[in-house]
User: Fold this.
Amino acid sequence: MIWGNLTQRANLIKLGVLVLFSALLLSCETVGYYTQAARGQLAIVFGREDIQRLLSEQTLPTDLKDKFNEVLLIREYAVSELKLPEGENYASYVDVDREHVVWNVFAAPEFSTDPVNWCYPIAGCVSYRGYFSESGAERYAAELAADGFDVYTGGIDAYSTLGWFDDSLLSTVLTRANYQLAGLIFHELAHQVVYVPGDTTFNESFATAIEREGLKRWLLHRNQAETIALAQTDVDRQRQFVDLVAGHRKQLDTLYESDSDARDMRVAKARMQQQLRDDYEQLKQSWDGYAGYDSWFSSSLNNAQLSTVSSYNDLVPFFDDLLRQSGGDLEQFFDEVDKLARLSEEERETRLQDWL
Assistant:
């Protein structure tokens, strides 16, 4: 009980530091934003239930019991074999009682696919602003739209606190297949190993490399080699989706850089958006009817939405190569990645360009 109280006190101090930081250095509007973020995180911290305790309850539904047992096995493997952070990560469960845990707001100018960036004390500059309530996200999105921006709001089911708090299993991810849940946990824990504020491509590529390598090792460890092909299908579809959207994004960039007037650009923009939908329907035919991206394509496909699909995994081959150079030793690999992360932005970019 004493340990629990000390942990809760430490969590409150961390949240208080962030709110105080925003109050001292930033605008009143930003203070309000950080306050809702602190409240949302606090609700998760104090909503935690120990998974081991839940498993001891006789009334726990069988499907939840099976999922919790699987998560504990994944967690144990992540720590012992993948050398990912231990702590109490994924040892607790939180029912957030909503479809998504966070809603991210994205924005871009009407005639540009370059996203608006927001900067934060811990994460650095990123191309989204997160809210713990859908209504809060929609209000802010409406403000941006009133200022003439293309806006897009997307629900997020999980995120990493970058080691500030022990991450919990959330109810928003329970419907995922077990292998997808394993990949998610490996990915989010990787962000606690190395994270470069503001360098999304570096961070996501590293976490994705760990996710895929960890999942492959995990499935082989569980004698589920046939599931590796299933996971690879997910990767292939994601790559085709990204390539499709990125190709159309480049076409829009060319349009926006042209001398066309605003009215003509709006007409051409709408035509390109419809063409993207048509091309997706063709691509889906090669997926045997898989409809996992239908919801995404049901939205407006404006610049803000397209800006959310970038080649954030471009550096995955680099990290795969670095892991091979490390002889498959993850601790040595993490050391090498940490050295890269500590370089200046210019030095890191030079190293990556040399590899390319």
In short: The longest strand covers residues 102-108. Confidence is low (pLDDT under 50) at residues 1-7, 18-27.
